[in-house]
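Minutes, project huddle
Topic: does the predicted pose make sense with magnesium ion bound?
PN asked that the exact inputs be recorded in the minutes so nobody has to dig through chat later. Recorded below.
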Amino acid sequence: TESLLTITDLSIDSLRDGTRRRIVEGFNLSVRAGEIYGLVGESGSGKSISMMASVGLAAQGLDVRSGTVNFGTRRFAASDQKSLRGNLSHGVSLLFQNAKGALNPFITVGKQVERVLRRRRRSDIQGELKELFRVVGLNYADLGRKYPHQVSGGQAQRVAMACALATEPALLIADEPTTALDVTTEREMLRFLASICRQRNMAVVLIAHNLSLVSEYCSSLSILHAGQVVETGNLAPIFAEPLHPYTQGLIAAVPDVDSPRELVPLIGSVWGGSSELDRCRFSHRCPHAMPRCERRIPPAVKRDGREVHCVLYEQEVSA
Ligand code: SF4
Ligand code: MG
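Predicted holo structure (tokens), as shared on screen:
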């Protein structure tokens, strides 16, 4: 099937404190209907910023310098945040971590979902509401009249999911939606997200820093480091044989697929001390770094059904 959302060459600068900093560079992503796409990286690598900017929700102080976004059959300049926002708001829903904190504490969970539903539906709101609760694995009769503080974290996250689904989005951006949940609830949520994604033929971008989770639920992924995609493609070949040294480090750090836990961060910070950005931004952490890596940003090399950005895979280059 065709891609629903395609982000091409997105670059974002930060303009805080009067200084321009290049924070995301050449970001690409393409997700199809019915697919869960994993976007993985340590915190500070630019995952959320990239996805928010691509739906027109770049935070203040950010300058979207370049990039295009294709959504369905339409095409937008990423710098035109206003038109992105206006055109994508009906087709895209967002889901964040800590739903409990995001829900209005003074309104019952049933009413919160109902309010979202009312924006789209005119008839049989009550029927639809009960159905939505059922879809997210909650019983409306038991929970509908409860306030957010009266439900568990997992239930609150499902209520947030019901709100997200109430608009019947073509795309759901789930930004570390299970980070605040215990491991069992987390798995339940993701299994269930996967089944909804199939049933509704909805596209999902799952932002995560836990690679073992992504490995279970996503068919494709992009790995981001310091604002650059380092490797992207189908999950199976990347896991079978990670090419980028950063991906290799991440996969080696995945403890055991049956006991998922936080990713062990590699040594060194994401960005490193260097202010020079026209380099491989992993060079300060890379065991294979050589002078060539510092001369420019490594271009994408296509190999074994994926793209990798590392000089180790370049054809002979003239230095
Ligand atoms: Fe390491 Fe160089 Fe490849 Fe970057 S380009 S990952 S520093 S070998
Ligand atoms: Mg984030």
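Observations noted during the meeting:
- The radius of gyration is 20 Å.
- The pocket of magnesium ion (ligand 2) is lined by residues 47-48, 175 (CB under 6 Å).
No decisions taken; revisit at the next huddle.
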